[in-house]
Each structure stands twice: as structure tokens, then as C-alpha cells.
Amino acid sequence: MIKLIGILGGTFNPIHYGHLRMAQELADVLGFDEVRFIPAATPPHKPTPEVSPGQRAAMVELAISNNPLFKLDTRELERTGASYTIDTLISLREELGENVALCLILGSDAFVKLNTWHRWQELINNCHIILVQRPNLAVQPKLPEELTTLLHDHYTENISDLSTKTAGYVQMQKITPLDISSTKIRDDLKLGRSQRYLVPYNIIEYISTHKLYK
Ligand code: ATP
After folding, report:
1. What is the pLDDT of residues 141-162, one digit of tens each?
2. Whose CA is nearest to atom 14 of ligand 1?
3. 10 lines ligand 1 (CB under 6 A)
4. What is the pTM for the complete model shown?
5. Which residues pair with 95 in a beta bridge?
6. Domains along the chain with CATH numbers
């Protein structure tokens, strides 16, 4: 029996209910045995965050502490240099063995840029991709042709397919659209606006105690 592991990589600067609710809904619908939250050290696609990797990971840990399905995985913080998802998948496979399907969760904003990722063509040989719509993307960019081909070649609607092999399918899943982003949270915190009900309360307390996002 193949186990299904959800993989949610991100900057988590900070983690918010968009991340948490997406992970929960996918775990319920797809039957994940666990979801790994993997904070990126030096995100290859974004400016280096001013909040330290350790603080971003600490916030993830706090946010998921009451959910037995959710695990913090700090492997990208322990490596030096850029965090490449392909390396993370290979190292997860080495650790977890051949009997797990790694299900890489990607918001549509991340998916449309997938063809710019390091060794992106190898990703699908190492995981399934679970694609979710990010609500209200300012512009809905056209999907690059090579990603249309990836979708065409690997797409499945059947949830049960995900546990028939350990990698190789792309699936789209509808989730409750929550238009929450870390960028908006950081901008609003700078303006002194409350972030209650967008991020867990213990994260609000952590941000305030450590005087982050001033
Ligand atoms: P930032 O605003 O700093 O770019 P973010 O809110 O997009 O951050 P990330 O940590 O970069 O958060 O996101 C990690 C992953 O979670 C990405 O695949 C992203 O598309 C997805 N994601 C983040 N927020 C949401 C949301 N509200 N709904 C669906 N997917 C989301």
C-alpha cells in the first residue's frame, strides 16, 4: 500500500490560513497520511526575506502544533545555498523509501512559473503535482506551452490514481478560495493593521513579541 505525503514548500513569511486550510482540505480529500511544511532557506525566486529562516520555521511549527497530520521539515534550512525543490524531493525519497507517493502542492501562481525552476523537467518523475487555484491573481497569466504539455501528458482526475504509483501525475483540486497572501499580511503589518483571523493567534503573538514586519 502506497502512502500519500503532501509536500508544501514555501517562504512562509509568515504562514497564514491560506496555507493551513489548503493543506487540511487536500489532506481530507486526497487522504494524505501526513503533510510536510518545508520552509525555503534562500528562495530562488524571491528576494531574501528580512525575517530569519529560523523565525519563519518557528512560526510554521507554532501554527501546526495542534495538528497531528502536519509536520515541519527543516531540511532546506540545513542545506547551504539555494533551496531547490528537486533536491528536496530526492532527499525525501531517500529518507521515506519507495513506498510513498510525494504529492507536491502548488498554488497556481507557483505553477505558472514552474518551467523556470531548476531541473524542472525532472520534478514529475519524483512526485505528483497537486495544483490549486490561487484566488484573484491580479493577472491570470497564460500558461507557457511546455507546462500545457506537462498538464496534458500527466493529468488525471482520479484521486485513486495517486496511490497507484509514487510519482508522475498532475491533478487539479478545488479548495475553498481564501485570498490571503504573506505579502499583503506584511504590508498591512507595516501599516499597523490587525491580522487576526488571517493568521493563527499564536503567530500574531510571535510577530508582536519578536517585533517582526515593522
Ligand atoms: P508571498 O506573498 O510572500 O509571495 P505567499 O502567500 O504566496 O507568499 P508562500 O509561502 O510563497 O506564500 O506559498 C507557498 C505555497 O502556498 C505556494 O505554492 C503558494 O502558491 C501557495 N499558497 C499560498 N497562499 C495560498 C492561498 N491563499 N491559496 C492557495 N495557495 C496558496
Report:
1. 688 999 999 999 999 999 999 9
2. 10
3. yes
4. 0.95
5. none
6. 3-177 (3.40.50.620)
